[in-house]
């Protein structure tokens, strides 16, 4: 068997198109432009790239982008003040604080200062609780993107055995909650799980989010399973020249693709979906704030 490749790049482009169409309609019918504020503290090079990409894609779909780049030595109080202003700003519908934050700032305190209705990352404790209790929440972008790809692949997820490898607050746990909400039978595996390969082999849906390069190999995969690889790992690639690197997922692609029914590649799978879902969440937040119907197919 050779798996179908789930093209996250193309999928993300379709989501952005849908968001852009919706934004255009909102602007003409309601004179309303969804706005996303992104806050970056410090000079972390990877974070700077993410923030730039988010800003570019936000304006490309017709939304307003507000970037706040603060120096590394910004105090916690200054950051909280900025969040208070953004919470009160009616042109801002989504607020994202780029993580990681410098060590002198309490990230939990900062995230929980964001108005939950504007928390487009879905990390605020209220949104975590709403998701866990099956209520309308802002859903973290990466798991939302994974869910969209799974719903696109399967007409109905109900009753499927889903295994989520990893239990982080930003990927593993919300992913498990979303799958549970779609009535999967969900197992969460982590570093203390016994015989993790055997657990994975029972999965009709396997979501890998462990941050371990190519840990999941083909013999862990149930024939025909759908494999979603969230991992992004940079490993040395001497075959490309001295000092070169390449990106791999948490899943060994070739051996797993020989067994699975469908699989996401790395790069080009889950990665592009994350920013697309951030835009979708910003649109959803704007609709909710203004009592407008939510965009179909862009929420959990
Ligand atoms: P974390 O490091 O926060 O969590 C990793 C999880 O994997 C933990 O729950 C850990 O278990 C578990 N784990 C680690 N080693 C093993 C093992 N040997 N066997 C079983 N479980 C193990 O990572 P994140 O959730 O933040 O990210 C996971 C991966 O996804 C990373 O590669 C990251 O770069 C990528 N990522 C990609 C995104 C995208 O946009 N595509 C967005 C976010 C993350 P325990 O809790 O017991 O320690």
Give me the secondary-structure topology:
Layout: E1 4-5, H1 8-30, E2 35-41, H2 45-60, E3 64-70, H3 76-88, E4 94-97, H4 107-111, H5 125-132, H6 141-153, E5 161-165, H7 172-181, E6 185-189, H8 196-201, E7 205-208, E8 226-229, E9 233-236, E10 245-248, H9 253-257, E11 262-263, H10 270-289
Parallel strand pairs: 1-11, 2-3, 2-4, 5-6, 5-7, 7-8, 8-11
Antiparallel strand pairs: 9-10
Helix pairs in contact: 1-10, 2-10, 6-7, 6-10
NADPH dihydro-nicotinamide-adenine-dinucleotide phosphate (NDP) binds next to helix 10.
Plain-language structure description:
This protein is of the alpha/beta class and 300 residues long. It has 2 domains: 30-127, 3-Layer(aba) Sandwich (Rossmann fold), CATH 3.40.50.10860; 141-272, NAD(P)-binding Rossmann-like Domain (Rossmann fold). Helices cover 40% and strands 16% of the residues. It has helices spanning 8-30, 45-60, 76-88, 107-111, 125-132, 141-153, 172-181, 196-201, 253-257, 270-289, and strands at residues 4-5, 35-41, 64-70, 94-97, 161-165, 185-189, 205-208, 226-229, 233-236, 245-248, 262-263. The strands form 3 sheets. The chain has a 6-stranded parallel β-sheet. It is globular and about 50 Å long. The mean pLDDT is 97. The structure holds NADPH dihydro-nicotinamide-adenine-dinucleotide phosphate. Residues 142, 165-168, 170-172, 189-193, 196, 209-212, 230-233, 270-271, 274 line the site of NADPH dihydro-nicotinamide-adenine-dinucleotide phosphate. NADPH dihydro-nicotinamide-adenine-dinucleotide phosphate binds next to helix 10.
């Amino acid at each position: 068997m050779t798996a179908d490749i789930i093209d996250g790049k193309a999928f993300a482009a379709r989501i952005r198109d849908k968001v852009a169409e919706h934004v255009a309609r909102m602007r003409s019918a309601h004179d309303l432009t969804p706005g996303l504020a992104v806050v970056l503290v410090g000079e972390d090079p990877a974070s700077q790239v993410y923030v730039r990409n988010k800003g570019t894609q936000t304006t490309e779909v017709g939304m307003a982008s507000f970037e706040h780049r603060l120096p590394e030595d910004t105090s916690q109080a200054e950051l909280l003040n900025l969040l208070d202003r953004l919470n009160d700003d009616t042109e801002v519908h989504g607020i994202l604080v780029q993580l990681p934050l410098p060590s002198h700032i309490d990230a939990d305190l900062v995230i929980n200062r964001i108005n939950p209705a504007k928390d487009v990352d879905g990390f605020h404790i209220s949104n975590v609780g709403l998701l866990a209790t099956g209520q309308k929440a802002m859903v973290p972008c990466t798991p939302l993107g994974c869910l969209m790809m799974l719903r696109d692949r399967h007409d109905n997820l109900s009753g499927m055995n889903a295994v989520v490898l990893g239990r982080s607050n930003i990927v593993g746990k919300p992913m498990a909650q979303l799958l549970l909400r779609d009535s999967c039978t969900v197992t969460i595996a982590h570093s203390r799980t016994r015989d993790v390969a055997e657990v994975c082999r029972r999965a009709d849906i396997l979501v890998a989010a462990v941050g371990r390069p190519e840990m999941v190999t083909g013999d862990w995969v149930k024939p025909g399973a759908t494999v979603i690889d969230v991992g992004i790992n940079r490993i040395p690639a001497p075959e490309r020249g001295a000092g070169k690197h390449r990106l791999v997922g948490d899943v060994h692609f070739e051996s797993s693709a020989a067994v699975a029914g469908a699989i996401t590649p790395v790069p080009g799978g889950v990665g592009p979906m994350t920013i697309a879902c951030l835009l979708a969440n910003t649109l959803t937040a704007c609709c909710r704030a203004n009592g407008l119907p939510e965009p179909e197919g862009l929420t959990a």
